[in-house]
Write a structure and sequence with these properties.
single chain; two-stranded antiparallel ribbon; mainly alpha; elongated; 3 helices
């Protein structure tokens, strides 16, 4: 198997932490990200940051929400 750069290996390692994502799927996702325009990768990154900061379980129904 080809050796990848340190940055690419780091991305693979992070993607593999996701449920159901093994090495091959991580590689597919990483290569897909490489083909995307930088703006789309930035939009994905921003969406992930926003959901982590703003979304939480509702205190009464436990569904995900930004407000109770």
């Amino acid at each position: 198997m080809a050796g990848f750069s340190a940055s690419f290996e780091r991305l693979l390692s992070e993607l593999e932490k996701m449920p159901g994502v093994g090495r091959k799927t991580a590689q597919r996702l990483a290569f897909h990200l490489l083909r995307l325009p930088e703006e789309e990768v930035e939009a994905l990154s921003a969406a992930m940051r926003d959901v982590k900061r703003n979304v939480r379980p509702c205190s009464s129904c436990y569904s995900i929400t930004e407000v109770d």
